[in-house]
Design goal:
The protein is α/β, with parallel strands linked by helices. It folds into two domains: 3-220, Spore Coat Polysaccharide Biosynthesis Protein SpsA, Chain A (Alpha-Beta Complex), CATH 3.90.550; 223-313, no CATH class. The protein is 44% helix and 16% strand. It is built from 13 helices and nine strands. The chain has helices at residues 16-24, 45-54, 73-84, 103-113, 129-132, 146-154, 170-175, 187-195, 225-241, 248-264, 271-282, 287-298, 303-313; strands spanning 3-9, 32-38, 61-67, 89-92, 98-99, 119-125, 142-143, 166-169, 202-211. Strands 1, 2, 3, 4, 5, 6, 7, 8 and 9 form a nine-stranded mixed β-sheet that branches. Helix 2 links the parallel strand 2 (32-38) and strand 3. Helix 10 runs antiparallel to helix 11 (271-282). The chain starts with a strand and ends with a helix.
Length: 315
C-alpha cells in the first residue's frame, strides 16, 4: 500500500462527511488506507464517521478507525495515525476540508516518477492572499537541491507552511522522529523547522488539489493569548536549541520573525520572561548580530530596525 491518509476527528460533525466523501471519490485505482483518529470530541462526529464507513463500499479506500481514550489535540491525533499507518507515504488531511477527485492520483504519478521522493507539496483551492501567492511562485516540479529545500521549508512564503496537503515518506518521519509537537498550537510551524533538516528530495503537485475551508470553530480563528505564549515560548526555545550549521542564518531569520511576532503581539507580558526568550536567541548570534538585536529590542515595533536585523542575517 503506497499511501495512508490521516484524518484527525474532533467536533467536525458539520463537515466530516463532506471530507470523507471527497476521499471515497478519488479516481485512483490503487488501494489507499484512510485512517480516522477519534480525538474525543463532544459532538457526534465519530458516529457520523462510523456510519459513513459502514455504508461505504469502496474497493480502493480501506478505512481504519482509531480511538483515543483522552483528547490529545491535533498533533496527538496525527501522531497516532502516522504510528499506525501501513502506507509508504503519509498524506495529511484536516476533517473540515476536502480534496479534489484526482488529488491522490496526481500525487501517485509523482511517486511513480520519483519513487524515493521525501516530500511532495500540493497547492490549495482557497481565495486568500496567502494561499493565492503560491499559484504564481516558481516551485520546482522536482529537486534534490538541499539548499533550496531547506530555505523553502523555513520560509513561510516559499511554500505553504501548513502540514495539510503535504505527502511525506513515512520512513523519513520514523527514522528522524519527525512527529508533531503535542500540547502547543502552531504545530505546523514547529514541524516544518525540523522537517527542513532531513528532507533530501522535494516535488510539487502543481495542480490545486486541496479545498481549504475556514471553520469558525477552528483553533486558528480565535486568539488565545495563553496558548500563543506557550506555543511561541516552546517553539523559539526548541528552535534555538536545535540550530545546525547548514543555512544557519536562515534558521536564525526564521526564529527572529517568530520572536518579533511574539513580542509585538504582547504575548510575553512578563518583562523577565520576554527578556529570557530574547536572551536565549541572542546568545546564539554573532557579535555584529547581537549589536543589531540589542538595537532592535529597545524598539521592536520600529519597522526600520526590524528590517535591519533581517538584513544582517542575510549578509
Amino acid at each position: 500500500m503506497n499511501i495512508s491518509i490521516i484524518i484527525p476527528i474532533y467536533n467536525v460533525s458539520q463537515y466530516v462527511e463532506r471530507c470523507l466523501t471527497s476521499v471515497v471519490n478519488q479516481t485512483t485505482q490503487e488501494t489507499i488506507e484512510c485512517i480516522c483518529v477519534d480525538d474525543c470530541g463532544t459532538d457526534n462526529s465519530m458516529e457520523i464517521v462510523e456510519n459513513f464507513v459502514k455504508n461505504t463500499n469502496s474497493k480502493v479506500i480501506k478505512f481504519k478507525l482509531l480511538y483515543h481514550k483522552t483528547n490529545k489535540g491535533l498533533s496527538g491525533a496525527r501522531n497516532t495515525g502516522i504510528k499506525n499507518a501501513t502506507g509508504n507515504y503519509i498524506y495529511l488531511l484536516d476533517s473540515d476540508d476536502e480534496i479534489t477527485p484526482t488529488c491522490i492520483e496526481d500525487f501517485l504519478k509523482i511517486i511513480h516518477q520519483h519513487p524515493h521522493v521525501d516530500l511532495i507539496q500540493g497547492l490549495f483551492i482557497q481565495d486568500s492572499p496567502y494561499m493565492n501567492q503560491f499559484k504564481n511562485k516558481r516551485i520546482p516540479s522536482y529537486t534534490e537541491d538541499r539548499e533550496y529545500i531547506k530555505e523553502a521549508l523555513l520560509d513561510y512564503n516559499a511554500i505553504p507552511i501548513c502540514a495539510a496537503n503535504k505527502m511525506v515518506r513515512r520512513e523519513l518521519i520514523i527514522k528522524h522522529n519527525l512527529f508533531f509537537k503535542e500540547g502547543i498550537i502552531h504545530e505546523d510551524n514547529y514541524w516544518s523547522f525540523f522537517l527542513a533538516k532531513h528532507v533530501q528530495s522535494f516535488a510539487c503537485n502543481a495542480k490545486s488539489c486541496y479545498i481549504y475551508f475556514v471553520n469558525p470553530n477552528s483553533i486558528m480563528t480565535a486568539i488565545n493569548v495563553q496558548k500563543e505564549t506557550i506555543a511561541y515560548k516552546t517553539i523559539i526555545q526548541d528552535f534555538v536549541a536545535n540550530l545546525d550549521p547548514f543555512l544557519l542564518n536562515k534558521q536564525k531569520e526564521t526564529i527572529f520573525y517568530l520572536l518579533h511576532k511574539a513580542i509585538v503581539s504582547n504575548y510575553f507580558s512578563d518583562k523577565n520572561e520576554k527578556y529570557q526568550i530574547f536572551k536565549s536567541f541572542y546568545t546564539k548570534c554573532s557579535i555584529i548580530e547581537q549589536l543589531v538585536l540589542r538595537f532592535w529590542f529597545c524598539k521592536p515595533q520600529n519597522v526600520k530596525r526590524t528590517h535591519l536585523v533581517v538584513k544582517t542575517f542575510n549578509l
